[in-house]
Amino acid sequence: MNFIEHSKIYHYPVLLKESIENLITDRNGIYVDVTFGGGGHSSAILKKLEKKAILIALDQDKESIKNNLIKDKRFYLLHKNFIHIRSILKKYNIEKVSGILADLGLSSYQIYNYKRGFSHKFNCTLDMRMNQKIPISALQIINQYSKKKLFHIFYKYGEFKNAIQIAEKILKKREKKPIITTWDLMNIFFLKKLSFKKKKKFLSRLFQSIRIEVNNEINNLKNFLLESSKIILPGGRIAIISYHSIEDRITKFFFKKGVFKNQEIPRCYSIPFKMIHKKVIKPTIQEIKINPKSRSARLRIAEKL
Ligand SMILES: C[S@@+](CC[C@H](N)C(=O)[O-])C[C@H]1O[C@@H](n2cnc3c(N)ncnc32)[C@H](O)[C@@H]1O
């Protein structure tokens, strides 16, 4: 199997042309792909770079590192969480880089690996950890979190208006019997009455909200954006592909203001970025036809001033 076939099975890269074309400003620069996945974006970046360039890629999932097929002298792949981007680069004596790409969320390989517990399509133990070493999985969250904490997850990350009812149903069920598997969780909600479309929407949001909590995705994104803003060269670019509105709102606000919402802006402050496109970049109808999973993707690119 060649690389293109492999990477499309592992994960079909999303907004590939749009993200790479806008990311590279110096063909001999240092770049970081902080979400390697199946390596589709990394491979496309390498094709655009010259001999002296370097590409460092990170992924917090060991399976992604094991599945790597890229062999290139300019390429380094590390099993790391992207929140540590600055300290990782420091170890290699790298202070500044020309471009950083983050393609957030999950790879298809993770979603369709029935042992990982990310999808309601397979009945397996609730897990949802991207890094199998982190101590808390979906199993602990669903069976041990208080009503208040569960409410917070469903309200904030799932944007459910009936978050309290969802939390209460889980508590009622687990009083009788622990909720062990993805289908134990799904069956709490008597979804038979719902249309296929509504059921799918409810379950995707439910599972997504738990996954965000398991992997601390919101805090990770904020820390990563802050760290990245410190290491990007003037004229260098940060490209973020996100798959839900919370991530996209955080990215948009940070690129526009250089801070997060409700964060105090210091006096004599100048905004550190310029947005490359006024409007968010979405996949074309053709891309969605070929890869329906790309439909929720949103790309934003900022240039350091
Ligand atoms: C959408 S996939 C990336 C796909 C990749 N661009 C490609 O073309 O194959 C997202 C990947 O990011 C990884 N990831 C998510 N959060 C991470 C984090 N905080 N640190 C490092 N990797 C992370 C996931 O494990 C997953 O493999």
CATH superfamily of the largest domain: Vaccinia Virus protein VP39
Integer tally of domains: 2
What fraction of residues sit in β-strands?
Answer: 5-15%
Separation of the first and last Cα atoms = 43 Å
Major sheet attributes: 7 strands, mixed
Number of strands: 7
Shape: globular
Average pLDDT, all residues: 94
The CATH class label of the largest domain is Alpha Beta
Q: Which class best fits the helix and strand makeup?
A: alpha/beta
Ions, cofactors and other bound molecules: S-adenosylmethionine
Strand order of the largest sheet: 3-2-1-4-5-7-6
DSSP helical segment count = 14
The low-confidence parts are none
- Give the SSE order as H and E letters: HHEHEHEHEHHHHHHHEHEHE
* CATH topology label of the largest domain: Rossmann fold
Q: Return the CATH architecture of the largest domain.
A: 3-Layer(aba) Sandwich
Helix content: 40-55%
What is the CA-atom radius of gyration, in angstroms? 20 Å
